[in-house]
Structures are given as C-alpha cells and as structure tokens.
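Suppose you are handed a protein chain with no further information: no name, no annotation, nothing but its sequence. What can you learn? This example shows the usual starting point.
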Amino acid sequence: MTRSTVHRILLRHHQVRDLDRHRQAPGRFQRGTPNELWQMDFKSPKGWNAAVGPLSVLDDCSRYLLVLQAVWANHGELVREQLASAFTTCAVPQAMLMDHGIPWWSERAPSGATHLTVWLMKQGIQLHWSGFRHPQTQGMVGRFHGALERALRLRAAPRQQPQVWLDQFRWEHNHVRPHEALGMQTPASVWCRSERPYDPHPPRWEYPPGAKVLKVSSQGSLDAYQIRWRIARALAGEWVQLERVGHRVLVYYCRTLIRELDLQNRSSILVQRWHPQPEADGDPADATS
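A reasonable first move is to predict its three-dimensional structure. Written in structure tokens, the prediction is:
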C-alpha cells in the first residue's frame, strides 16, 4: 500500500489534524514591510576553519543584513549578545524565522524551547520555524549564504581578521549592491528602523483577561487536568496560557503555541512548527504563507 493511499484512508476517517498537515513550502515569499520578519541562520563552516560559520540575520522584506558575525560557536549566549546589539540599534522585529537547530531549538525539550527562544518570546517576538527537511522556507537567507560563499571563493577572508572582511561584505551588501528583487535598489534604501523598542528587562507577559494561566514548575513540568505534563526546563518559573479545544489543550507562552496536550490519550504533543497566538484584531499571517 502506498503512502498516498494510507494518507487518503486516514483523511477519510478524520485521523489527520490540521496541525499535522504540512503545507508545501513555496519557492519564494516576501513580507511587505521591513521588520515584519527577520530570518536567522548560521552559515556552513566550509571555508571558515571553524566549527560553525558566521551568524546571519536578514530582514525578509528589504534583504537588509542586520547581523553578520563570526561567533564561531552555536552557543545561545553568543547569539543572544549579537541579537541584543541588533535590537538596541535596529529595535525589535514582529517575528523571526529559524530552522530546528541549536541554539534556537532543543531536541531534548518536549516543546523545543531553549533559554534563547524564551528570551525572544519575552520581547513579544512571534517565532516561526521552517518545516522539517524544507530548507526552501528560509530561501532568502540561504541565497544570501550562497552569495557569501561565492565571494569567499573569489576574495578569501584573512585568517587573522575575518570579522573585518565580514563587516566590509555586510556594508557592500547593504549599501552598494543593488538587488533585482528590490527594483535594483539597495537594501539600506528600503529598510528602516523598527518602531518596536527593545526592553532588556521586559515585564511579565500579560495574557488576556479571564484566560486560564498556570506556572511551569522548577522541573519544567505543568500540573493541569489531574496530570503532570512535561513542558520544558527553559520555561521553569514562567506562566503559560492554556486554551481548551475539545479534548485538546493548547499551551501558549506569550504569543507562541509551544505544546498541545491530548486529554483523551494523556499525551503531550510536539508542535513542530510553532504558530502565533490569535489576536483580537486578526490572525497574523504564517511565515510560510
């Protein structure tokens, strides 16, 4: 029996939920205004004589390169330092798109949450994740990395001061090189600073009045509906919102859906692609739509 036949049978018997259905990622997509979405990823280590390549953060609409830094390790604190610097200079985006990699995703945590992603969510940033085995979801930062690799082959970065080379390349990308997708404008001429200020010490997130809110234990678990659920140690001591839909319970942290609890089967389900929480003025568009 083929996979398509099995899938049709499951659909016929209503055994496939909307959250389980993976939409085909389009070849290209682009947000309409700057700072609606930033894409973040590490360049491959090829040609850099390091464990990981440079960290890149790119504005989806303008292609403006906000971060191009030789951190040489995928440690959360190193990434956080670079993002805090970018937030201070450029303010905070509405959303960010990443893959399922370290340090913004943890395979050990039931929800995938890490200390870095918790810090990002506290800023009110909606987190989106590329589909598993769908790198085209992050096609924009991927194409930039291709251009960076070609430039590295043509004009090798000095081993002693690679960050100087990266800074020069970032300036050229943002201020000199015109982009066909931007009508031959430069990213710097299209991008503008975000209007959402960065708060190094944000207050506790305010959930809607009347919402069911519970605190995650010091062990990263949640006691609800007479069951102890594993959530994530990174969320220890944090408050989450529970929204019941039939026999399912959706668990949100700030604006992000991080877990689904199945009361019928007493199972906690991983939300592979996190979704933004619906708001009163309309649902934010998904990063891959």
